[in-house]
Sequence to fold (652 residues):
Amino acid sequence: MSTDEEDGTHHSSESKDDQSSSSDSSSSLEEKEFSSTVKIPDAAFIQAARRKRELARAQGDYISLDVKHPITISGTKRNSDDDPESEPDDHEKRIPFAPKPQTLRQRMAEETSIGNATSEESQEDENQDIWEHQQMKKAVKIIEERDIGISHSCGSLTVKKFDTSISFSPVNLEIIKKQLNTSSSDQALNYKFYKSMKIYVENLIDCLNEKVHVNIYIIFFFGEALLEKNGFCFYILYFDLKIYSKKLILLTGKEETSTNGNLAVDEKTQWILEEIESRRTRRRQASVLSGNCNHQEGTSSDDELSSAEMTDFQKSQDHILQNQKKVFEDVHDDFCNIQNILLKFQQWREKFPDSYYEAFISLCIPKILNPLIRVQLIPWNPLKLDSIDLKQMPWFTSVEEFMDSSMEDSKKEDSSDKKILSAVINKTVIPRLTDFVEFIWDPLSTSQTTSLITHCRVILEEHSTCENEISKSKQDLLKSIVSRMKKAIEDDVFIPLYPKSAIENKTSPHSKFEERQFWSGLKLFSNILLWNGLLPDDTLRELGLGKLLNRYLIISLHNAIPGPDVVKRCKQIAACLPEKWFENSAMRTSIPQLENFIQFLLQSAHKLSRSEFRDEVKEIILILVKIKALNQAESFIEEYHLDHLKSLIKEV
Fold:
């Protein structure tokens, strides 16, 4: 057959293939492909083929391997993108079965890429060989070092010969069985104890969670009763100041007065005024019966109630305390008696001390006892002098006994069980005390202040085991005390200013009211300084001297008529000052906050030295000496040639 005939035959086969379906063409190709002998190409051939395919793809002249999409000539595809209507029909699409002849430039680029691929592959093989060689050297080195270490350790060991002279007790099967039985029985007992303790603690917590709501309910109503009682006293004091000061102002202006000179008020106001006056009358009579002849109006307590009011309050209190006893009446003692609860944990501590301390039980006990202790603290009133002491309460003694029976070294300062009492006080007692300070305590009441200071001193000093640590609850308590005293100075102190003509007559209502208000302010001044030792000196000086003495009391002193009455007031002020502030023997000048008071004393001494009250000058010099204003006292004595008073300074 000639060449032309072969070409014709080839073209005729192509036309037949164009008319056949694409599926027939693909199947015939697959049959030819699988019929040929399978040869595994080497890496160089695969790399060359990859480079060749990438080059053909870059030129757009390649056969797609995706059989899911129709195969088109790249040129036709580009034309179809530009003009969708120019896309040829299916019978016009042709599939080339042989690549086009390559140009010289394409063949040179192909040979270059094959050479580069071969060099890159050889470089990768070389790097792989180097890495494998390094890893093998490391492994060999580690094995050699291990063998050397084993040989040294084996060489250093000495073979210990068995001493035949030592005799051992005979061991038989019965002994081994007995030891196994003993060990297993101990494990069973331990498991039984831990399981029973787990069940007990779970039941205890469930019980306390059930009763805590009732506990809060009772505490709330007891606090409401105290608030109602003290609120009535505060209301009486406030109404007294408001009505009486208004009355004096109207009397001074001669306005809105009745025919008998009294203030025209409604029936309710008149009843309150009569109640206030009757309370004062009772206090005067009580002072006379007690033998207190130096009683001053304004220094007596305003927190007492009438007999009827006291009876009503006592009934309400008794009712609440009866409900308190019913809180745990349906509970077994093992779950409500603090001594029994601590006994359970004491048994744990004695039998298994390691697990006891590893479980940090000393941190859990204060939280467990909190609801039970709060119930016992319901009748406790730290504002009453006859209130029960904390040390006499059952929970206090139980906790102390539990701490004393601790197996830890008693000399160990950071012993966990030794801090249980302090933790209970911080978490339970001090918050209760803070509530009394914020809502119930009256700083004007000397009896309440004295009782509160006593309890605070016991709690903050005697039972403070962590000397280097100030708990948050203690900080909150001290802040509440300072805040409450500031509020008392701002709200409860009132010093009226009247013309001297209105207060010259000691029997006038203006003079009596001014005098009562001064002594009331001085009473608060004394109560504030009673906190010496519990509150910082700077805080006390700011409250007592800066806010009260220099802002209120000194005004009343300047407005008063010079004489024995003024000297008496100054002596009382000096008597309230803590002696600790003036213990330094080298002091010649007093503390800066007393400068205004010292200047008033010197002015009073100048006036009295030229009056009929010359003997009062000596009292003023004694006050200056007491507060360590020695330089001012010496200057005054030299100025007025009071040589007979120099001995007062030399005695210091």
Notes: DSSP finds 24 helices and no strands in the chain. Residues 1-38, 66-93, 254-261, 409-413 have pLDDT under 50 and may be disordered.
